[in-house]
Specification:
- The protein is mainly beta.
- It is about 10% helix and about 60% strand.
- It has 5 helices and 41 strands.
- β10 and β11 form a beta hairpin.
- It starts with 8 loop residues before the first helix and ends with a strand.
Length: about 550
C-alpha cells in the first residue's frame, strides 16, 4: 500500500527528533546519552508519572543525575502514598525543585528552603519548620529575590516579632508583633505607587491606634489619636474600603463602606448598629435598622439597579421575620403576610400582577400549606390541605412577568409545567419532581425555536437527548449532569453525520470517527482527549488510508505515511 507522499522539511525534522527522543528516553540509554541535568529535567516535564517512575527504577545512573531515589520519588509523586522520611531531602513539582531541607516522620522539620514553582525557581522562603509548617524564625522573598518579611512563625502563620518590607521598593513598611498572620502591635508606614508616604502610625491589639494619612499632595487627610477620631481604611491594593469615625480603635459613629457592596450609616463597637443603607454598585438595595452588624427591625429592600420597591417589613438576625410585603417589579403588590427565618410562615396572601387575589391561606417553610387558589377571574381554582392537593398555579418573576405555570404538590413544582424567561418567551415544557425538572422535557429559545428534547434528572440533562439549531438536529446521544457524556453523534446543518463516538464532560473523549460534511465519507478514526485528536488514529481520503500513527494535541507526532 505504497502511495507516495511528500513531507515538508519541518515535518521530516520533527519525525527525526521524535525517533531520537524515543531512543533517548529508553530504559537502557537514558542517563548515559545525556550529560546535561537541564536537558534531563526538560525531557521529564513531558512524561507521565508512570513513565518517570519506570525509567528511574531501571536507571541507577539517572537516579544519581537527578538526585532522586525511589523512596523520595514515590513520596512526592501524586500517584503514591507518603513514605515516611527522616533526614535531608528535596521535593519536586512538575520537574521543578520546590523545597529542600530536613524531615522527621515524613514531615518538614528543622531548617529548609522553599522555591517558586516555575522556570525562574527563585527562593521563596527560608527558615524553620515543625510538623510540616513554618515554625520559628524565617524570611520571605518576592519573585525578584527581594526580602519582604523576616520574623517569627507559629503553625505556618506570622506570629511574634517581625518586619515587613514593600514588595517592590524594599522599604520597611511595618515593624512589630503579629498574631495569626495579622499586624497586631507596632509601627507602620505605607507608600503609594510613586513611593510617596501615604500613612504612618501604630497598631494596638490589631487596630490602628495612632496615625496620620496623607493625600497625593502630601497633605494630612485624617488623623487618629489613641484610637479616636476620623479615619480611613484601605485594602491591600490601596483602594479605599472605609471612611468614618473611630473610638478606641474601632468603628464608632457615622461611616461609609466602599466597594461593590457599599454601606453608609451608624456603627457601634466596630459593627453596624442603628440606621443604615446598603448599596450594590452604587445603587440602593436596602435601608433600615441594624443590630450587631445584621438587619434588625424595620427595613425596605429595592430591586437592583433601579430604585423600585421590592420588600418592606420586619427583620431579625439579618432575615425577614414578622410581617412583610413583597412587590412586583412594576410596583404591584405580590404578597403580604408573615415570615420566619427568611421564609413565608404563617398567614399570607398572593396576588396576580393585576392586583387580583391568587392565593390566600397558610405557609410553612416558604411553601403553601393550607388555603385556596383563585383564577384570574376570581373563581376557586384549587385547594390545599396540609400541603397536599392537585394544585395548578403560576409564578411571576421580579419584573411581574409570568415565569412558570403548571402543577404543584407540597408547595413545589410536581407534574407537568411550562417555564418562561424574563421577556415572557416560552423556554421549557416537561415534567417536574420536587421542584426540579425530572423526566422528559423540551427546551426552546425565542418561543418556537426548538433547542433540546430528552431526559432530565435533578434539573439537568441526564440520559438520552437531542440538540437542535435553527430547527435542525445537530447532536443526539447521552448526557450526564447537563453535559454530553457517553456515546453520541454530531450532524452538520445539511443533515450529514460528521462525528460519532464517545464523550466526557461535554467534549469528545475516547474513541470516535469523523466524516466529511459534504461527501459523508470517513476521514478520521481514532482517539480524542478534550475534543482534540490525541493518541492513535488513522486519516482517510476517499476510503484510502493516507496517514496512520500518533497524535498529540491535534497534530501528528510520529507516523507511517501511505
Amino acid at each position: 500500500m505504497g502511495a507516495s507522499c511528500s513531507l515538508s522539511k519541518d515535518k521530516k525534522r520533527n519525525a527525526s527528533k521524535m525517533n531520537e527522543f524515543k531512543n533517548l528516553i529508553s530504559e537502557k540509554n537514558i542517563g548515559k546519552s545525556i550529560e546535561s541535568l537541564y536537558i534531563l529535567k526538560y525531557i521529564f516535564s513531558f512524561l507521565s508519572e508512570n513513565q518517570k517512575l519506570k525509567i528511574i527504577i531501571y536507571n541507577k545512573n539517572l537516579q544519581k543525575k537527578l538526585d532522586i531515589n525511589i523512596r523520595n520519588y514515590k513520596r512526592y509523586s501524586w500517584i503514591y502514598k507518603k513514605d515516611k522520611k527522616n533526614g535531608k531531602g528535596k521535593e519536586y513539582h512538575n520537574g521543578f525543585l520546590i523545597f529542600e531541607g530536613e524531615y522527621l516522620n515524613g514531615e518538614r522539620n528543622g531548617k529548609g528552603k522553599e522555591y517558586n514553582d516555575n522556570l525562574l525557581g527563585g527562593l521563596k522562603f527560608k527558615g524553620e519548620y515543625l510538623n510540616g509548617k513554618r515554625n520559628g524564625k524565617g524570611k520571605e522573598y518576592n519573585y525578584d529575590g527581594k526580602l519582604i518579611f523576616e520574623g517569627e512563625y507559629v503553625n505556618g502563620e506570622r506570629n511574634g516579632k517581625g518586619k515587613e518590607y514593600d514588595f517592590l521598593s524594599g522599604k520597611l513598611l511595618f515593624e512589630g508583633e503579629y498574631l495569626n498572620g495579622k499586624r497586631w502591635n507596632g509601627k507602620e508606614k505605607e507608600y503609594d505607587c510613586n513611593d510617596k508616604l501615604e500613612f504612618e502610625g501604630e497598631y494596638l491589639n490589631g487596630k490602628i491606634w495612632n496615625g496620620r494619612r496623607y493625600d497625593f499632595e502630601g497633605k494630612m487627610s485624617f488623623e487618629i489619636k489613641e484610637g479616636n477620631g476620623k479615619g480611613k481604611e484601605y485594602n491591600k491594593y490601596g483602594k479605599l474600603e472605609f471612611k468614618g469615625e473611630y473610638l478606641n480603635g474601632e468603628r464608632n459613629g457615622k461611616g461609609t463602606e466602599y466597594g461593590e457592596l457599599g454601606f453608609e450609616g451608624e456603627y457601634l463597637n466596630g459593627k453596624r448598629n442603628g440606621k443604615g443603607k446598603e448599596y450594590h454598585n452604587g445603587k440602593l438595595i436596602f435601608e433600615g435598622e441594624y443590630l450587631d452588624g445584621k438587619r434588625n427591625g424595620k427595613g425596605t429592600e429595592y430591586y437592583d439597579y433601579v430604585r423600585k420597591l421590592k420588600f418592606e417589613g420586619e427583620y431579625l438576625n439579618g432575615q425577614r421575620n414578622g410581617k412583610g410585603k413583597e412587590y412586583y417589579y412594576d410596583g404591584e403588590l405580590a404578597f403580604e403576610g408573615e415570615y420566619l427565618n427568611g421564609k413565608k410562615n404563617g398567614k399570607g396572601k398572593e396576588y396576580y400582577n393585576n392586583g387580583k387575589l391568587l392565593f390566600e391561606g397558610e405557609y410553612l417553610n416558604g411553601k403553601r400549606w393550607n388555603g385556596k387558589g383563585y383564577n384570574i377571574i376570581g373563581e376557586i381554582d384549587f385547594e390545599i390541605k396540609r400541603g397536599n392537593g392537585n394544585e395548578k398555579g403560576k409564578e411571576y418573576n421580579k419584573y411581574g412577568e409570568l415565569g412558570f405555570e403548571g402543577e404543584y404538590l407540597n408547595g413545589e413544582r410536581n407534574g407537568k409545567g411550562k417555564e418562561y424567561d424574563y421577556f415572557n418567551n416560552f423556554i421549557f415544557e416537561g415534567e417536574y419532581l420536587n421542584g426540579e425538572r425530572n423526566g422528559k422535557g423540551k427546551e426552546y429559545y425565542y418561543n418556537d425555536n426548538f433547542l433540546f428534547e430528552g431526559e432530565y434528572l435533578n434539573g439537568k440533562r441526564n440520559g438520552k437527548g437531542k440538540e437542535y439549531h435553527n430547527g435542525k438536529l445537530i447532536f443526539e446521544g447521552e448526557y450526564l449532569d447537563g453535559e454530553r457524556d457517553g456515546k453520541g453523534k454530531e450532524y452538520h446543518d445539511n443533515g450529514k453525520l460528521i462525528f460519532e463516538g464517545e464523550y466526557f464532560d461535554g467534549k469528545r473523549n475516547g474513541k470516535g470517527k469523523e466524516y466529511d460534511f459534504y461527501s459523508g465519507k470517513l476521514k478520521f478514526e481514532g482517539e480524542f482527549i478534550n475534543g482534540i485528536r490525541n493518541g492513535k488514529g488513522k486519516e482517510y481520503y476517499f476510503d484510502k488510508i493516507i496517514f496512520e500513527g500518533e497524535y498529540v494535541n491535534g497534530k501528528r507526532s510520529e507516523c507511517q505515511i501511505f
